[in-house]
Amino acid sequence: HAKKMGRGNYQFFTPEMNAAAGKRLALERDLRRALELKEFELHYQPKVDMATGDVHAMEALVRWRSPERGLVPPNEFIPIAEETGMIIPLGAWVLHEACRQNRAWQLSGLPRMRVAVNLSAYQFRQPNLPEFVAALLVETGMDASCLELEVTESVVMHNPADAALTLERLHAQGIHISVDDFGTGYSSLSYLKQFQLDTLKIDRSFVRDISSNADDAAIVKSVIALAHSLRLKVIAEGVETNEQLDFLRMLGCDQYQGYLSSRPLPAADFERTLRLSIDLRQAA
Ligand code: C2E
Ligand code: MG
Ligand code: MG
Ligand code: MG
Q1: How many Å lie between the centroid of ligand 3 and the Cα of residue 206?
Q2: Ligand 2 centre and the CA of 118: distance in Å?
Q3: ipTM of this model?
């Protein structure tokens, strides 16, 4: 221990650092096992059309159902999965499960919907990603137009030339591409014209105070104008109140996601809610 060290020695690890490193190692070990035991599940959040209230798409969000830790949110394990490379098998599982579930819903008679899957940086940089996704679509029987991939600005800006090519190869298959958390990166806007994109997702941080903060409102208004002039759609994240919704609608936003419409739900709950809303509509 540090106290026993002679003068001039550095204390490399404090007890707190040791505890943190131990926790992190345990998490990594458990995560590896979770991958083998398939302890992951996808929750789904609808993407709602502003004008009609219709749901034509949803976002798949991964959770880890750990017997010891409970339901673990992605922010607590995705970064570690990225650092360790586990994101590749995990991301492959997410893609496969999202396509499989969406195809199963289609076959069961639900209206055709698009499912959006988040891609991490390391996953996006795999040279064979476009072929991998193409094979997955064949295997699950899902149409490419029913798949959407969400990437953040930093993911595509890491190596713009390679990213442009990857996006091109995905887009050419008919896959829909969204820029997630738009506005929070530090990238220039010039990439918007170089990349094959379909939708900008306005980050939740701009939506939170949109009806009271003139700066946020101005930013969102400009992003919507920019997107539309580039023939991109705009979806707002994190809409929790009717006030936010009304404001975004006034600004011409195309779609929204948020607790106001629904929290991300386990597949069975998502399906039940969807069927209920379809039945209600038909009864009306
Ligand atoms: P994201 O892709 O930006 O997803 C939106 C996050 O906001 C989700 O958190 C969602 O549950 C949450 N959210 C949705 N509506 C509201 C709202 O009205 N209010 C608030 N406060 N939050 C809302 P979640 O599920 O914890 O996911 C966090 C992040 O983890 C995601 O951010 C995404 O970057 C990442 N992630 C999730 N699933 C995956 C995955 O399968 N692969 C990868 N690579 N990353 C994933
Ligand atoms: Mg997302
Ligand atoms: Mg987002
Ligand atoms: Mg986010």
Answers
A1: 12
A2: 5
A3: 0.98
